[in-house]
Amino acid sequence: MNGIRVGSLFGIPFYINPTWFLVLGLVTWTYGEGLATQFPSLPGASPFILGLVTALLLFSSVLAHELGHSFVAIKQGIKVDSITLFIFGGLASLEKESDSPAAAFWVAIAGPAVSLVLFGIFTTLGFAGHLTGPVAAITAVLAAINLSLGLFNLIPGLPLDGGNILKAIVWKVTGNQYKGVKIASIVGQGFGWVAIASGLVPIFLYGSFDNIWNLLIGSFLLQNAGKSAQFARVQERLTGMTVADAVTPNSPMISQDITLREFVDQRTLTGSNWQKFLVTNESGHLVGELALDALKDVRSDRWAHTAVSEIMQSIEPSTIIISDRPLLQAIEQLEAKKVTTLSVTDSDGILVGLLEKAAVINLLHRQPQVNPA
């Protein structure tokens, strides 16, 4: 979930989703009106300026929460792809999950811990700093918000931090990471339905929309908990499989030493519909790729005198994967790079073939459901 990039924080790309501006406006207006009522002596637009300051400090607290997750992940050697602020708070996108339940626990709990520390800081400032007037009111609001943010995220259901904590605990107890995801997803969906009900009941019984926010939060929990459970099922079914298990038979592979005329003739004889071919040298090592469109740059009367090596393109290393790697890693790589294919080599760089996203999907459909104890 990305949006408008507004810079980097500690080397982490920072984005703002367009929905964030809606919440910023609502929070600014709500707190501005509250300050105007509480402190009628505030002149002109100053209550709403203070409301904007409060809103920005609120989102700074959310950002600090996400940085808590991020710093622990970075300490574990996990890259943080981005942090995004959106309508429901913030999201730190990690390159991969932690390698152990203990490591996953510390990443998950870091965010709520930061929020509770901020609650303690703002509460201490309010009492020990002898603050008065609007500053005291804003400090109290920030303390309350951070307390709510910390406690709400400790609800033991995905996609909340508490769900990730529960997942880590179940993973530790059972030794099965996916069982932890399933249980935390079920709990998350349960809380989602409760939140939706708490938003709908007042509407039907009293015509009140006071809890409409609960309806939105419940929908968010329900949708994302369901996605987590679905992805866990995919992960579980692919456990133990390697990239080699999904390589496309008769992958499009050609030698760099043949001419373009030989290449075209071979393609015609085989009836190949591939639009891109992987190129190898005489020892079978992957050295590049050739797209059919590249032939347009060479006059057809020169095809017999032009080798494939002369017009082939280099391959981005991030789209190459070793054949003995877990198939789950290939899926993560496909999603991270937003590509539909990966070139597969063995550990020595010898080309094995092509891995297609569609082939992985077909493999999933053929794979029987796994029901571990």
Identify the notable features of this structure and list them briefly:
373 residues, alpha/beta, 3-stranded mixed sheet
Task: Show the helix and strand layout.
Blueprint: E1 4-9, E2 12-16, H1 19-38, H2 46-75, E3 80-86, E4 89-94, H3 101-128, H4 133-152, H5 161-174, H6 177-206, H7 212-238, E5 253-255, H8 260-270, E6 276-280, E7 286-291, H9 308-311, E8 320-322, H10 327-337, E9 341-345, E10 351-356, H11 357-366
Parallel strand pairs: 2-3, 5-6, 8-9
Antiparallel strand pairs: 1-2, 3-4, 6-7, 9-10
Low-pLDDT stretches are 369-373
Largest sheet: 4 strands, mixed
Number of separate strands: 10
Note the run of SSEs as H and E. EEHHEEHHHHHEHEEHEHEEH
Question: Strand order within the widest sheet?
Answer: 1-2-3-4
On the 0 to 100 scale, the average pLDDT is 87
Q: State the end-to-end CA separation.
A: 35 Å
Nearest-angstrom radius of gyration? 27 Å
- Beta-sheet strand percentage? 5-15%
The share of residues in helices is: 40-55%
Put simply, the count of helices is 11
Structural class comes to: alpha/beta
**Anisotropy-based shape:** elongated
